[in-house]
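#lab-general

N.A. 3:47 PM
ok so I finally got the sequence cleaned up, no stray characters, all 181 residues accounted for. can someone with queue access submit it? mine expired

B.Y. 3:52 PM
send it over

N.A. 3:53 PM
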Amino acid sequence: SDLSNYFACFFVKSMVISGLMKYDVTKYLRASGQTQAAYEIQKRWGGRQPLLKLTGLDLLWGDEQFKSLGLPVDVWFVCVHVRENGFSPVDDEIQCYRNGSITKIIPAIEEITRRGGWVIRIGDSNMEPLPKLPNVIDYAHHPLRSARLDIFLCAQSNFILGNTSGIALVGTVFGVPSALA
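B.Y. 4:20 PM
back already:
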């Protein structure tokens, strides 16, 4: 069994190295100087169902997480994410145009909450903390933060507000729109 796996790995690796097994996805993910094809694909998707949907078990789990986060039952919410400097130190120099400041989006956050919504700021604990604001959860600094809850929040939010970070694409596969700058 180990021998056949070795040969399979060798065969696949040889195909990759020789260029026989290659598919360029950069136009979908990182189109420099032009619009990513992912947005055109999303537009053409039209009124069809989203690619992914949460299961009943996911929804039950998520309800418990919402309670633990302090999110009231039956409120609408928006996920907010602003990519900041330092997210990717390896290529931050060429990606810095995608970075922003969470403080510049506070007027939008206040407008959402004024209209009765809640805001859940997603991201990681290295981000600048948000000041205390009513109906706002700084989930990026919350002890419950996890990859599963990140996905759940993006899938359940009314929309995702932020800048050109990849997390907005998570919402799109669940049919959640994004407003990005």
